[in-house]
Amino acid sequence: MEETIDGRWGELLTRRYAATVATLCLGVALYALNTFLVSTSLPTAVTELGGVGLISWAFTVYLVAAIVGGAAAAMLKQRLGTRPALLLAALAFLAGTLVCGFAPSMPVVLVGRLFQGAGEGVVAAVCYALIPEMFPSRLMPKVFGAEAIVWAAAAFGGPLLSGVLTEHVSWRAAFLVNVPLIAIFIALVGLVVPAEDDRRGGGTVPVLRLSGCAAGIMLVSVAGIVPHSWQAAACVAGALLLLAAVVLADRRSRDRLFPSDAFTFGSTVGAGLWVVLLMPVAQAATTVYLNITIQHLWGYGPTMAGYVSALMALSWSGSAVLVAGIVRPQAQRRLIRLGPALLALGLLGVMAALVTGQPWLLMLCQVLIGTGFGISWAFLSQAVMEAARPGERDSASALLPTLQSGGYAIGAAMAGLVANEAGMAAALTPAAIIHAATWVFGIAALLGTLGFLASFGVRPGGR
Which UniProt keywords are present, listed alphabetically (predicted)? Predict the structure, then answer.
């Protein structure tokens, strides 16, 4: 493989770029930390406030709001300007955090989660859109690599920090620890993001399409809590049809939320967005079912199971750093294809490890899965950003983290549907658990293979 190495990591720390890198990484850190902090502290909050039946909705409301916010982010950036859009979103996230931190009941927590999700969805999407605006092409993979390091650190430190605060202070402190971070982010936005008016207003607000996005993701989330498999299947199918209808309607609109060639097969943007969607859809199977499977099958405790899961995040960040200096388009193209291939191979290996009872193989495959994301994600994202048609780079860039979140939600729902049909919920013996896991990870590998096939349409440096 021929490679050309350009740019240095140290360049990100120069006066020209350091504050910008810190701003974008903090935007990612807010999203990542919030995810891990809340998942650890919320059970204690429910114990104090009551409303155990609402705990899943605390995640659902956040996810729906984040995806809708992300879908609307490019429009907000263009209509309000970059700095006002980021400041407004950060203030919404701050308001939601304060509401959650001082909530007297679970319904109030849900209101706070709504504001948190909407704010952070916009923050993450606009931060992505700023990458091609504020960095040259040679440094973009390094920025993505820095963000991967931040995500891995949050994956390790978030649950620990939340656990310590929840146990020794209060679950409320685990929410409110975000407040100083948000304040720093707001200050950095004021320092880094240009103040000049970059608004390109006009047009109507696409309320119907945004509502369709919200309804589609809500259906995906509901699929995980309905009592019967046919109901879950109907929810997933309805969600996919509704989201497809939103994309088709968007293509015919003058005020688009998405790039005009989104999800087509004849362009780098269209094919790239399929890969961005399918890779998280496939990997969601390990996020949802790997920990619980190895705990029941091999007797692992939560800590050991957590370490096995963390291998994926470590491998992602480590491999992203290793390949960040590659700038030759031919080499990037190979890595974009190799990434989904390693993901599919890793998922097949997870299935084989569970069947044969080989923990070392499982850990190796977790490394393969993380490496698949790490070696391809930055170049995939950069290819989509740079191939966007004139005037559509904001919408293409902002769609990437939104689509990633949506992919995890869809993948989790599909994995749950397969697991229930395969008898995972009623599995009492190792053989029954293995049977169900074989179906879950086998179909996940198939979805990863579809991502691999779609990757052949992605051409770095071209459209």
Answer: Membrane, Transmembrane, Transmembrane helix
